[in-house]
Amino acid sequence: MKLCERCDNTFIPKVSYQIYCSLECRDTATKAKIAERYHFTRRQKRIGKNRRCLGGCGTSLSIYNDSGFCANCNVSKKAVDKTLKDLKGFFDYEQE
Ligand SMILES: [Zn+2]
Ligand SMILES: [Zn+2]
Q1: Which protein residues have their CB within 5 A of the ion that is ligand 2?
Q2: Which residues of the chain are modeled with pLDDT < 70?
Q3: Distance, CA 74 to ligand 2 centroid (Å)?
Q4: What pLDDT does 63 receive?
Q5: What is the Å distance from ligand 2's center to 75 Cα?
């Protein structure tokens, strides 16, 4: 018996190097690894570059920042998005 590295199920391996209980677990694990690798490379590319917040506040962003906005601007961006949505709803209503 072996313990699946993905879902913690126990299983009987068909081959000695089998580490996942099922094809699904193997696929999910492979996809997760690819995604992880992709994010890792993206972050590595950011090293040495001085990325500034897209909100125009001048804050330097860490390599882990995926949104392009600093924490402060990210909040206000969401607020703006919401306001725009509300406005759109308002205009839709007006046209009827
Ligand atoms: Zn599994
Ligand atoms: Zn900012």
Answers
A1: 53, 55, 57, 59, 70, 73
A2: 90-96
A3: 7
A4: 92
A5: 9
